């Protein structure tokens, strides 16, 4: 079955489904997506003849005149290329330096769900930044970052009439020339900024974590600090995060694949010899992870529902197949194993994340792909069997 990438038909691309707008194919409110013109659904549960680059099934709706749904009063946003990695790295480091998470110590550091509760050490707190809750304060922060770019990257700043921050994910500029960061609205609480470093240690993009008080119904806690739908804004993409530098880690060692940079760094806090590569979610950036982990033995440590959630199992099956096929293509003998853990009362009492497991001093076990598959039952097993059958994969 051919695998194709989806090209957004209109500005804004694709959206995730929600309870208010469930998938038109499986009618569920999680995992799936749809194009903003309503002409295409990406269903993670119901198969089709075509699949997207994230393993979803493409369903085109012939009953929708997609162009009639595009608001004519809102012209497509301009396509702004990403700033060079050196400039993005410098800007994000300056943001974290000038507005560290410690500015909001009770909310982001010491309180419930704060960085210290994740097991991070006090000295690690300086690695994380914050966005102020009000739009006015964020505009002042954006203006300070603009001045930083004008002073340190003059040639780049001139590309967009001195705006400076155009091309940096999360930043944008209104017609008056005022620059902003994140959304044109205010929040109740400050927002945590989580850097994503590439293989050379450059911050290529940042995630943000919203406070529970600011998450709408069916909304996501973690989001990319990006601005593709704002004027002169740009996307961050979905980069992966490295806790180590591959150039200093010889081939043949072991790396852990997991979800989220914060989770990866918390895990390394308790397992300092571990090398971790993190994606933003089980369905994201599989190709990038496979390439990054190609020289190494892989331990996949996704959240504990990788044995009970059919959609998660399908995505894990996709990553396993991709990596195994890549290893065969490159004549590699590296291994791929799945990391599992159990709570004091058995699997049902196990903490969800691998970072929580090591923080609780639980024993981690690495099992083979065949043993993982044998542990699956009912819908999770069916999801894996169906996907591997679709692509002709036999582990």
List the helices and strands and how they pair.
Elements: E1 14-16, E2 33-35, E3 40-43, E4 57-60, H1 85-98, H2 105-110, E5 129-131, H3 135-152, H4 154-157, E6 171-173, E7 179-181, E8 191-197, E9 203-209, E10 222-224, E11 241-242, E12 254-259, H5 261-270, E13 276-279, H6 286-292, E14 297-300, H7 310-329, E15 336-340, H8 354-359, E16 365-368, H9 369-374, H10 378-391
Parallel strand pairs: 12-13, 12-14, 14-15
Antiparallel strand pairs: 1-2, 2-3, 3-4, 5-8, 6-7, 8-9, 9-10, 11-13, 15-16
Model description:
The protein has 395 residues and is an alpha+beta fold. The chain folds into 3 domains: 1-66, no CATH class; 85-224, DNA primase DNAg catalytic core, N-terminal domain, CATH 3.90.980; 241-391, Dna Topoisomerase Vi A Subunit, Chain: A, domain 2, CATH 3.40.1360. Helices cover 27% and strands 16% of the residues. The chain has 10 helices and 16 strands. The protein has helices spanning 85-98, 105-110, 135-152, 154-157, 261-270, 286-292, 310-329, 354-359, 369-374, 378-391; strands at 14-16, 33-35, 40-43, 57-60, 129-131, 171-173, 179-181, 191-197, 203-209, 222-224, 241-242, 254-259, 276-279, 297-300, 336-340, 365-368. A 6-stranded mixed β-sheet has the order 11-13-12-14-15-16, sandwiched between helices. It has a 4-stranded antiparallel β-sheet with strand order 1-2-3-4, with no helix packed on it. Strands 5-8-9-10 form a 4-stranded antiparallel β-sheet. Strand 2 and strand 3 (40-43) form a beta hairpin. Helix 1 crosses helix 3 (135-152), helix 6 packs across helix 7 (310-329) and helix 7 runs parallel beside helix 10. It is globular. The two termini are 17 Å apart. The model is unreliable at 1-12 and 63-77 (pLDDT under 50).
